[in-house]
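Researcher: Good morning. I'm working through a list of sequences from a screen, and I'd like to move beyond sequence-only analysis. For each chain I'm collecting a predicted structure so we can compare shapes side by side. This is the next one on the list. No need for commentary yet; just the structure.
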Amino acid sequence: MHTSNLISNNTPLPLTEELALYKRYLKMLEHIAGLLLEKTSEQSLSGVLRLLSETTGVGCCALFLNKTNQHDQQIAKLNCTWSTGEAVSRLSNFDHFRELEFQRYPLLFDALQVGMVFCKHLPELSPAEAALFATQNIQTALCVPLLMDDEMEGFIGLFSQHTARNWHTVEIDVICAVANSIALALTRKQAEQSLEVNAHRLRTLVGSTEDMIIEYDQNHQILNVWTDNHAFPITLENHAQGLALEIALPYNMAQAILSASTKLRTQQHRETFEFTLRIHDEDRFFLGRLQTIPAETTDMRNTVALIRDISDLMHEEAQRLSMLETLNLLEEAIIDLSTDGLLLNFSAAWGKLLDVPADREYTHIGQPLTTFVCKEDRAALAAVIQQLAVGKLHSQVIRFRLLHGEEPIWIEAHLLAHHGHKHEITGLRGVLRDITTSHLQERRITQLALHDALTQLPNRILLEDHLQQAIARATRTNDKVALGFIDLDHFKHINDTMGHKAGDTVLVTLSQRLSAVLRSVDTLSRWGGDEFVVLLPEANNEAHIRNIAERLRDAARASIDIDGNETKLTISIGFAIYPDDADSAETLMSVADHTMFHAKGVGRNNVQFFQDIHDKTLDRENVLMQTRLSHAIHNKTIQVFFQPVVDTRTQEIVSFEALARWHDDENGWIPPATFIPMAEHLGIIQELGDQVFDHTLQRLQVWHETHGKIQASVNISRAQLFTPAFVQNLLDKVQHYGLQPQDVILEITESVALLDLSYESKRLQELHDAGFTLAIDDFGTGYSALSQLHAMPIDILKIDSSFTSRLDTTDGQRIVQAIVQMADALSLKMIVEGVESDTTVQYLQSIGVHYIQGHFFSEASPAGVCQLLLQESVSLFS
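Model: Good morning. Structure tokens for this chain:
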């Protein structure tokens, strides 16, 4: 160790003083050696610094150890200090003194890193070092490096405050010796910590292993036994150490180890052995391995035996073999592939899938899987294999055609990546299943689900999907989309005069002729009945669209021969264009549909474009209102109001009629007479009816809990009435709300109920048998016959308000009296609608009508208002 510009006092001292200095420092060195020999701790290091401070008389001694901070910079970090009281208080507030960056103080650290002692007065320091020490009023700094394997790992700092200090050579030599002792102590401490960590790691590893580990010497005496696994079926007591193997171990175990030891000594390599033990009435199987290691105290070699219970593994292997035998019985083929798609192995079903003899299967090993796949499907399969091999996919299901004799078969393959012990992808595994029958059936089902059964054209679902895609593309590319509704003129006349079979022939022929006019990118769909829809994507050329429209009309006009009769056809077409006429798929369909009706209204057998209609203001508003109604029903914002039916004898409410109400954001409250037909035209009347029914049952449930039994009536549309599962759906809904069918009155208008008496009566009888109360609404407007009423299973007649409004005339009174008498004759309850005056009430009571509905009692109101009406129903007459 060298000194850097050492500040020392080399003036010879008197012999007595020099002896006293040696004695004092040697005594300090002796105490320091004693401290460091006991234990290297923060307390012992602080004691060393205290002895240095007391012996040298400096104000502060500090120990710094090298560290690397979070910015990968070398620093010297203050480990411990010993100072006078004043110095302690000052240093405790000096943050910069706790971590010293090498690069900030080059004069100090350059000297220390080459093993030199740094000793300087304050005026001799560089600005950086001077600023560091000046804040603590340090006048002289003596820094001695701690060298470990010739590398500076820290330093001791002795700092003189207030006055400069000169150091004698003897003092510096002793302090250097102290620094070396500290360096050795720290090195020893690091070694002890490393040994302790390694020992702990060894104990942890041995304790966590499933093996029993036995170390024994050449005399077969046990030196150590490790096993912390309580599930291991063999236990050895602590006193097994020092005993011979044949005494401490079970006989079969000892003999297996001794036999393997003999082979190990003669062949000088690792040796394995097996043995079986009967434990708890069960045979357990063990596998062991012997290996020699150097002995700690002699030149001899000891032996370590690692013993593992492999009973479970053997059971698993037996199960695996049984599983393989089972897999060979299955029709599914199990295959193993390399990461580049080569066949490595396969089960017996592989040959069955390919229809090849078993003696030829071996030739498939090493060939690409794609070799056995139809050419059209190879690229897709190869892409999946590549993605699995590089880890982009963990598993994937893919369908392809596998070569099978003359005709390929459809295969569903479930492929997944197989990982090695280092989590790298080592190969692929797959299960191949013949799905030819189900695949063809799925295609047939898909065809049926998305295509019209008669014409094989796309149906509504597929058309709407194509339309959404076309509009999405047009939005991205600023293209246009044309949509045309096509209606066959006077088709009902063909059906009625020539029969449904002839009508089907007409529809099929027409669909073929219209399809022949279109491009491959166009879509022709059968919308329903005699209506078709044509979709023209990428329709940027208006003249081209109009040309296609005329060609469609001309194609339909060609005559059709039906059973020897030449029949002429005409069609009416209405076209709308996105985005010129509409900003969404739904609006575009509404506009095109409306335009088609306009074409029929101006004479049929013509093509109309929405942009050509002169007065489009009303038409556009009607279309937009239809769109808003569709949204209102879809978002379930249609409201339900209730109008009470009152028994004039008890002056109590006996039932409520549920009435749909729609508040349009643009036009306010829309009359039901306007939006109900609109919902029927849009084909969403059933959704509207279901919402009204659900809301009514929910409210009726509350009224039953608060006011006892009361009925509610709901209007049923024709579309709802003839839904196949209509009756069962109603029963399920009623049960869901804890109600009975008798709590619900189903109102069917007279015109609907008598449209097809034989069919309607059957459905009405189902509802009546289920327990629902049936009412004919708007009675008297459908011109029904008494015989028809007699044949219908109805309970209530509701006289239309048009008759009530004429009760101030003699003829009006006679008509109502006749209806009342007929209802009495048929034992039907009578409800009169549209009652608005006390005079009307009194007259109806006089002719025996007791159930009355109208504004005289209450207009249709929200459910909350009806709740109040139930609480004070007597006030309805006051």
